[in-house]
């Protein structure tokens, strides 16, 4: 098992992000964490990344506490966190200097593949910044990628290109946990889907099993969460 | 220690405009010092010392602002990314402090150099030892006893406030800590003044104090013909307090949620 959430509750001041959430994440799978706004997707991913600590329960990632193993996973949050002065070259300097698993050749390939302009992020559109962030994240060679809304703000054609790159990544032995509202576009990518509702698991299913039953992930999303 | 050079580079990229503005302000202080042209030596020296004092205080404030921008980084998500990088919280804190101290050292040493240049132009020649003390010993003492503690406190304050981001009312500890800062430093300085010093005091600026005595200018500084007597204890106490504050800030960084 690559990562586990065991009966995890995360309480904020007045709300609960997740409640008694139990989730096992296996090696080498693309897991879609899906749900409506406020269902606990971001909280679950941040707990796995070690950005949040559980109020109750236990989180294990790569055999230990997430924060301790933070160098061995990739977390791409939904916040546009790049500095305004940063260029793609600065991004390389930053990632190469901090992460042993950063692959510069792959980074340059991804910059070209994702058509990231070579200028400061303050002169980029939101979608271009998102592509740069994705290139920085996917240029690291790790076992676990936690991607929270990586396609937000990116146009349709670019989203398709990015999903293609994700599929290419999937062919390695890495695990991708992907939270997205673009369910239809990412449908073919998922190996397993977990639908969250009110901070708990509403349905945990293999995408292939759903297809065999003649149901798409999008249809199941509507059935389970509407 | 992997990544420390990158953290220093990041700090440089993030703060270079602040650093450039601070170092650029030296031209303004230089201009100001040159505007003091009255004939009375005592008045002229007093005003110039006051200008340098204001410049030193401005430098302290700018350094604190430069280093204390963690709150904005927290809101923009940049802090969260740093929390997930491999270097420990202590290294992150250390990189910020070292960069701020580096800028501070350049600023205060040049400020000392300006004073020497102005003195030399006015025909005051205190001797090589005093000039070197003006350029290095004085600024380093001030940085260790005043600048570093304030910078460390600012970092601790900002990291502490960032720890309250998720729980919402960070303005409550913010007001308490900001409002409490003058009282804290007043309490510390009063405590230091009450100490009976046992270590031998350092004698600095002998050449200048000799000239002050010769000109019969009254001053509150305890001076002898050998120079102003500067006690060691405040420096060591403030350095120790700074280290404690930085360790606490690093520890909070290790544990904080993002």
Describe this entry's structure for a reader.
The complex is a heterodimer of chains A (226) and B (258). Chain A is an alpha/beta fold and 226 residues long. Chain A is built from eight helices and nine strands. Chain A has helices at residues 41-49, 88-98, 104-113, 126-138, 156-170, 183-186, 207-212, 217-225, and strands at 3-11, 16-25, 30-35, 56-61, 73-76, 144-148, 175-179, 192-197, 200-206. Chain A has a six-stranded mixed β-sheet with strand order 5-6-7-3-8-9, with helices on both faces. A three-stranded antiparallel β-sheet of chain A has the order 2-1-4, covered by helices on one side. In chain A, strand 1 (3-11) and strand 2 (16-25) form a beta hairpin. Chain A starts with a strand and ends with a helix. With 258 residues, chain B is mainly alpha-helical. Chain B has nine helices and three strands. Chain B has helices at 4-35, 41-67, 70-76, 78-83, 89-121, 128-162, 171-194, 206-215, 233-255; strands at 202-204, 223-224, 227-230. Chain B has a three-stranded antiparallel β-sheet with strand order 1-3-2. In chain B, 33% of the residues are buried. The interface between A and B is medium-sized, with 27 and 25 residues.
